[in-house]
User: Fold these one by one.
Assistant:
Number 1:
Amino acid sequence: MLGIGLLQGLAVTARNFLGSFHDPKRFVTVQYPEERTRLPEAYRNFPFLVSESAEDPMGTLRCVACQICEKECPPQCIYIEKSRDKKPDAGGRPQIYPAVFDIDIAVCMSCQICVEVCPFDAIKMDQVFELAATDRFGGLVLDRHALAKPNSYFQQVHPAEAADVDERLAAARRAAEEKARAAAAAKLAPPRPAPAPKPPAAQSAEAQKPSPPAA
Amino acid sequence: MSAPLIAEPLLERAPLIARDWLTHALPEPLRWIANSLITIVVLLTVFGLLFAFLTLAERKVLGRVQNRPGPNRTGWAGLLQPFADGIKMLTKEDIVPRTADRVLHFLAPVAILGFSFLTFAVIPYGRHLVPVELDAGILYFFAAGSATELSIFMAGWSSHNKYALVAAMRALAQLISYELPLLLSAVPVVLAAGTLSASGIVEAQAGYKWGLVPHWHVLTPWGAASFAVFFISALSESNRSPFDLPEAESELIAGHLTEYSGFKYALFFMAEYFGMCALCGMAVTLFLGGWQAPLPALEFIPSYAWFSAKLLALLLVFIWVRATLPRLRMDQLTRFAWKFLVPLALVNLGASAFWSLTFAWTGPMQAVRWAVSLALAVGPFLLLGLRLGSGIGKRTYRCA
Amino acid sequence: MNAALAIIALVTVGSAAAAMLGRNLLRSILMLAVSWAGAAAFYLWAGAQFVAFAQVLVYLGAISMVALFAVLLTRQSRDEPAAAPAARRRGVLAVAAAAAVAAVLLWAVKKTPLPVAWRPVPSTTVRELGAQLMGRHGAALLVVGVLLTIALIGGVVLASDRAYEKPEDKP
């Protein structure tokens, strides 16, 4: 019959309307900014720099100013200046660090290429979107102080990715430690006994001399 | 307005007492002018506030239907939102295109608001609350309503924008098409009540059958069909969904209102809502018994309260329909008016005539009267529905 | 001759003159609509409410639309009408024709014996009108109804063009 579809539609909307009063879970919106929706893990907005510890963010940046991300960035929004000196990094070794690391988030297009090419897992994508500024030019350029966030933060926003990165870094660190330990052990071991000048064995030792000694 | 009766309850006479207290000291011709001015000011205030809160109610109801709360930040539960919107409209820049006809461009919102507001004069809001008692009140209402169409054309033409002009033409076509069912569905009521005066029609619906069921026109077969046709035509005459083609954003930007900004746009908006309120008020008067109570036990509630309750209920149904139905295309719109509503209204006129002529039938003949009326009201609906609906099978999707 | 009638007469005649003298065609139509509204006001002043509202409903609501649509759908260019007649002879003939019409109307008004003394206003309620239409003038009403129906059907037939109906045009 003509009009049945209309009445069914009206019934659906009436059910929605009445249901919205006694069932607050029906709402698909949240009262922002008092409540926030849970963002998916893969959500990304602008990059941030990872530092190992929260207490000394500038000193423990993973970034070594290799400038690969600066060259790969399509809109060229990253500006890096290498430092003249070297400071000890998280591992204790002296390392170049970025004296200036600026990202212009008015230009950044969140393509994540900088993250993909970084060999040191030093730059990752952040999820913060409340970045409104009152200055159109300077206010939207984030320097390294604003960009540096600790690894604990990275683990909080991207748990799976951070777990992978931590595992890989830990494995690399373990392998490096193994190598260092083997080298140290080889250095501390007693030196190879030098061939003694014995007359009957001297000729045989001299005859054996041309062969290079095994290290 | 008629003189108040002493025997009525105080609440019922309260508006008249208040008005008389304000103007009793003035001499006679001045007193009549003062009374009229008070009426106008009260109507403007009440319907202005109703317009404001109706926009808010619409947004909140639409929100809740769409599983979200609607505006709830400005003031408690968003009650100050209409005033925020008003301030926003007032502070917007008033842009008039350089080649536009400035006089007409300025006059169009004034004219439409004036004519829309004129229609409020004949609606009986309460037992003693008719602003102007006219012998041909219903005719005056529809005449003033049809004069608003001229201002829509003025708006579209004066913008000097060919898209606005085409949209104004489409809006005019829609309004003219639906004026016919609107009038034709009001005629059976006039026939049954025997008078063109609005208060006369309300009084013709007085009394209760078996002491319980009121004599409202909507509770008769022809009245229900007429009410349905009137309601649909009212939806279209006030450019509401699903007939809001002239003002939808995806259709030629804003149709005939494309070149209007700021307060002039707000005036057009206000005129549309005034038209909506006036048409709902007329629907209440013609079909739902006006200011009368539905049960004799509830007559202690003042008449204007009943009118307001019925008016608000109809306005909520308007909003409910907007939340549900998709927009009709121009040809679907006009086809629906001319091929469905007009024949239905004409047959309904015959049904109403039959009902009026057979009022003396009693006993088992009452059942016959009801059966024939129902057949005359429902039959054409089913037949026309079958004829119009046939040929429209399940939608086949042809992919490129 | 009281003030209300004077104002109504001024508005009606003034807007009609503005309509005829105007250069912009659409403004002329709108001025004509104002003069029709003036006529409705005159009917109200004379006490004929029904006729006044019918005038507004029919003229302002419908006939003005017809005039507007006719002008808008048939105009070829947007240039203004000429300020002066094309030839002197045309101008002289136009004035002569207008004067002749005015003379005939004035003669008809002067010749009709209009009652000058005060008489009670006949009851022109809608009920009376309806009784007169259905009773004394019933035959004329039926003829007019048939004429209108024929015109409507003819209009619909002219407007619809069966040759162009294709199945994919149906919604």
Number 2:
Amino acid sequence: MKFTLSWLKDHLETHASVPGIVDAMTMAGLEVEAVIDPATKLKAFTVAKIVEAVQHPNADRLRVCQVDTIDGRKEIVCGAPNARAGLTTVYAPIGAYVPGLGVTLVEKPVRGVVSNGMMCSAKELEVAEESEGILELDDSLAVGTPAAEALAQEAVIDFEVTPNRPDWLGVAGIARDLAAAGVGRLKDLSVKPVAGSFPCPIRIEIKAADACPMFAGRVIRGVKNGPSPEWLQQRLKAIGLRPINALVDVTNLISYDRCRPLHVYDVDLLVGKTIQARLGHANAAHAADGHASEHLLALDGKTYAIAKDMCVIADAGGERPVGLGGVMGGESTGCSESTTTVFVESAWFDPIRTAQTSRTTGITSDAAYRFARGVDPGFVVDGLELATQLILQLCGGEASQVGVAGAPPAPLEPLAFDPAYVHRLSGLSIAREGVLEILTKLGFKAEGHGATLTITPPTWRRDIDGKADLVEEVARIAGFDNLPSTPLPEVPYPTGGVLTPRQARARAARRALAAFGFQEAVSWSFTARKTAELFGGGTDALVLSNPIAAELDCMRPSILPNLIEAAGRNANRGFDDAALFEIGPVFAGDRPNDQRTAVTAIIASHPARTWDKSGAEDVFAIKGQLMTLLEELGAPTASLQVAQGSASSWWHPGRSARLQLGPKAVLAEFGQMHPAMLKALDVEGPVYAFELWLEAVPEPKKKATKSRPAWRGSALMPLSRDFAFVVPQDLAAGDLVRAVQGADKALIAAVRVFDLYQGPGVPEGSKSLALEAAIQPSDQTLTDKDIEALSAKIVAAAEKIGAKLRG
Amino acid sequence: MTDLSTLEAELSAQVGAAADLAALDAVRVAALGKTGSISNLLKSLGSMSPDERKTAGPAINGLRDRVAALINERKTGLEAKALEAQLQAERVDLTLPAPARRKGSVHPTMQVFDELVAIFAEMGFAVAEGPDIEDDFHNFTALNFPPKHPAREMHDTFFFNPRKTETGEDGERMLLRTHTSPVQVRTMVSQKPPIRIIAPGRTYRKDSDQTHTPMFHQIEGLVIDRDIHMGHLKWTLQTLVARFFETGSVTARFRPHHFPFTEPSAEMDIQCDRSGGELKIGQGSDWLEILGCGMVHPNVLRHCGIDPDEYQGFAFGLGVDRLAMLKYGVPDLRDMFAGDVRWLAHYGFSAFTAPNPASGLS
């Protein structure tokens, strides 16, 4: 919403400057977005008079002028045909930046004559789009007068209107709030009715009271339409509106002045003597296949299909659409310079229906914008009277009586209000009288005594929905600067921190992975549907109906594709060595429980060559990091099964596994990504990765204290024994380790694989695995016999799963 | 006795000539070994007369002790020399690079999340979370957005396709939450006041330019109790910005605003300086909007089963990515989500700088 200071002063008696107004607006809740002040742009330009203009000695089209300027008499070369002695115009000194030309003036000879400045056209000052010759100003203007003043260029204030305050879409509404905020005195906003001298010849009918509860109108005959006067054109142009003709300009003026959109019809172009507000015709033949049965050629020159839930203004006995109520009028009945009889419409259209029509048709008119937010239902007839006054004043003519159909929507219920609630909710200390004064200035009516007031909101404040709204009114006018700053009451400090175990784990995982050398990325929660399908997702329920881009149309089933694609983008930029991780949501469905938190890390390992030939990471690097991470997170790593070959299809089948406590308790998948999948994502492999689901990591048992079990360090030396077993090639080393470990759980502290061998000396189809068993005696030193017995148990346990001690 | 002197001189010469430990040991064996020259002399003492033994004994023993000492001394010297040689041989060029260690980092948005959690944890706020895919009730209706109200339009919501009902008609339409306020709703529905939470998380709006991305992060706060008023809100947020920006003092102002879910509603600006193309917080004469807040609308409390005549409180919400951009000078929001390893290295944080009150937030 834009307005100028002079316009505001029509309704507000004030001496405040533009910055003062802007501050007051901001602190009253009218968020100023910009102040466009032509005076800033035109600062260097002033009024000057040409004293003498003679032909340039070396150029036919140029004149050498002697000009009286703010800087004294100057010789200026000018090419404008209207540069003549006696002309009052605008002067730009050397060094001035001319906005319309985009140049800064420098002193240089023009065909041998030095020009000491420039005289400007309206276009060069950007006060008009087109101009011929230099400006011709009123001779009464004194030399040196600022150009902005001479050209009546005013500062324009642009501010954001929140959806609850349609009354701010009229300058008068802004004035009311500023007056309440103490910036000035509100002038009388009341409108004097214009008596009609004949009955309204157009009958107004409402056929859809919920779409258009009230419709007022009158005819003015004998008008002379044409360009509106300079002051009106200037006012509209200042806020970026294009003057059209007096009748239309009056409606635009009142729309911006009072937030009262109006429409004018050329009566001679109306068919019949009735104007009707109804819904779109649902023609059975058309409605079935969804096609509209009616169309409107609107004032913007475009044809719109009329749906059956739109509010239509129709003539010809209700048959012909001549407008979309509250949105846009039709071209067939629009007012032009030849209009002599006009019908002025002032109606109240339902906000939600208007907003829907505006959305469906894509029409964003000033009227629709206002009706969608809810204009003042108490100003329907007043708006019509105000328009009548202006039309009679500008175009002459004779007004009919006012015709009204329907009634304004029911007013809001009065509210019971205790002024002490202002303090209770806001903390502000304002006396009862202060509360009442603010409310009254804003147009509220207060009745009653003490703590039992009844407050009636003004008709233009349909946003008032309860007593908290009244507190807001009082608080914002009293000023949020005056709010106290009150420390929150102390609460018992949460023992054990404020994070849930899962949140704490996400935090630990983040720090751990960063410490391991992964860079944390944050990628979109969405991906392309076809990518989601590659990773087990892409179901209908997770596809967006209005994605921002086709490749971001589906919620991700996994973070893997996002990170792999990020690695691909980095590689395309020449950085193909990346270790990335992300902790974030993945989606299996659209219910709250379908969302899990994944911790995902990838290594696209392409390290630079090194002198010591230390190579790239492999799949065991990622396994190591995953296992360390799980340990950090307190997962029961000792009980985890490495289920190789059962990871999802996007993994390398021979180099991937699930980490699980059981088939239904899968904590993570890890391994090397499937080359076919990398190809589909257009990323060069190998890529190693893991994805871990935090929800699947069992939470540790809650304990009453933080105390740990007592530590017992054995005084006895640990010892170790090595075993080499020949096993079938497909026997998992992990199974052999577990078997050996299980031979004597008390004595065997750890089992480590220290060699894996295949080749000469080992039968075809077999492999040799060498293990070291770390033995920790607990009570007494082991004798040779004890150790022999333990070794026998280990060998026996290994033999049970098909291992033979290597001879 | 001449023999002994000669022998001693010979042995001394041999010890001195031994070039390494092996040669020295050979000398030792030849002199002091089982059949060594001195050992043999010692053995000969047994066949001597007592008188002879009286003079020869001390002489031979003296010879043995002196030779043994000489050998030991020489041994120490040779060992030192050998070690010296070994160390020389073991020299490496330490200007060669050590094996590369990957340098990881924490994303600035996540670092700022941790900073904010640290600040609010001190004030007793618990951390609540909720789903990213929401329904209309939790994202809009419960938050006092009337159906079809223009305020909904301002949210540029991402929608899913309507679910099909059993009869095959269009049913409920899920959406991506446009703010983390649904978490407030879920908390109020499931928990009795007093409530003091923050709700961090991903939020989504259909928007993309230098300062808008279709996904971004919010933290919202909610405090509900019997006597919580706007003054508490003001203190809480003033405390927040003062601690967060770590610049000593930050001037903040509250401006009235409108949100459907709060009444009264406000936005908070902080003072900043935009001169010279660089944004500096905590100085200058410009204002920068950083968050929206207000007293929870009575309708919202009612929707969540809380009696607004008994309880009241405040809520606020702020953009985490934007705060990270402001504090750490990130120019373009879109880069936050691009995963460029150079950007991550530049704007990322060390794993070991978890924000805490002792060493500071960042």
